[in-house]
Amino acid sequence: MAEASRIFHTALLPTLHQTPSLRKRSSHTISIQRTSPAIVRCTISTSSDTSSKAPTGPQPIPWGCEIDSVENAAALQKWLTDSGLPAQKMEIKKVDVGERGLVANNNIRKGEKLLFVPPSLVISADSEWTFPEAGDVLKRYNVPDWPLIATYLISEASLMKSSRWSNYISALPRQPYSLLYWTRAELDRYLEASQIRERAIERINNVTGTYNDLRARIFSKHPNLFPEEVRLPSLDGRVALVPWADMLNHSCDVETFLDYDKSTKGVVFTTDRPYQPGEQVFISYGRKSNGELLLSYGFVPRQGTNPRDSVELPLMLKKSDKCYEQKVEALKKHGLSASQCFPLQVTGWPLELIAYAYLAVSPPSMSGKFEEMASAASNKNSSNKEIKYPELEEQALQFVLDSCESSISKYTKFLQASGSMDLDITSPKQLNRKVFLKQLAVDLCNSEQRILFRAQYILRRKLRDMRRGELKALRVQGVKAGCHGGE
């Protein structure tokens, strides 16, 4: 689908820095109870449970639209134009990549600046609240920008059509597929083989922690101003949402990002290629792996199309190692643990991975080198240089290969079972969601397993060549010994 919630890490909006983030806008059903002009009580659920139950409280109001709807998106475009968005060379249409997106309606040159969304149409921490008391309290407590903006949107959503942002809110997708909105059961069932599952659980826990912190510090102390239940996506840094720009979809082939143009005082991006009328226009959401794109934005690029794709390979010290405790202590000094993940790409792996492998296989006689190995295994050390221990090379590569093949077997098990999974769903709407989530998981696992297969091939070849070389050396030594014996 075509939503791209633009997130900028910046000190102030006039100095926006290019850091695109969420692709697929997180949307929810919101239950609203307005008890006075200054009180908004909401309940937001990110769960996919749509079981029908008799309503016992405030009735939900619609939030967002179907992911392929262009009707609400067209209303958004009209409102933006009426509110000061300059004439555009793009329009919202249904597209093959992303359900809906921005399509060129004029010739667009390479290097041309587009968008020019003015600051007045950007939602930031400095946006004016319809209920200013709530905004003042959040700012007084120094709430980070992203949860502040999320609460701002909830407040505006409660106003429905009377909010100036109603056209924007109604154009957001109702059905998010980011891993933040998968249930724990869905994560466990579909992503058991992938390390991105752990990242998703960690992110969800951060979300929950952020909300609990806000509830304890602020919401509970100001019940007349804040929602009873709010689930806030928490991201570090200063953020801003840019309506219209978030209709742009991601392409792995594109290197252009959103930025703030000081001369025109608007959010822009500069094209890195020309576009003909009717072609979809893309930007980049960052140099991310397929797993990271699924985690934050809810989509997986077609296999083999993402040059930055990677897979996390877990490595683990053996508890039976005589030097286990000593090695763990060395790792802790550099922010690492006995179980660590390292990224593999089709093109290879980081130096830190091999350094960790050296440490994992090193014997007690090399205890004096544990600190050096642990330091080299940490990417926090900017002065890291490649370390080599020829006497450990074969063991280290075999250690990585064993870990690689263990991961491959997990992916194979999931992919073989995925065709026969009983979805146990009776609702057609839920069936569509489950089928789609399952397909996303299959696509991700195929792309990550492909990288593991490549690493397996390289490791096996290195070990084969190494062992052939050792065998050849032994044969030469044997021949020489025989010659000397004959003398």
From TrEMBL:
Sample GO molecular function, one term: [ribulose-bisphosphate carboxylase]-lysine N-methyltransferase activity
Residues annotated as domain SET: 88-286
Binding sites annotated in the UniProt record for substrate: D246, Y260, Y285, Y297
One Pfam family linked to the record: Rubis-subs-bind
Coiled-coil residue spans: none
Amino-acid positions noted as binding S-adenosyl-L-methionine in the UniProt annotation, renumbered to this chain: N249, H250
GO CC annotation, single: chloroplast
Top-rank lineage group of the source organism: Eukaryota
One example of a Gene Ontology biological process annotation: methylation
InterPro entries membership: Rubisco_LSMT_MeTrfase_plant, Rubisco_LSMT_subst-bd, Rubisco_LSMT_subst-bd_sf, SET_dom, SET_dom_sf, SET_RBCMT, SETD3_SETD6_MTase
Keywords in alphabetical order: Methyltransferase, S-adenosyl-L-methionine, Transferase
Protein name: SET domain-containing protein
Source organism of this protein record: Ambrosia artemisiifolia (Common ragweed)
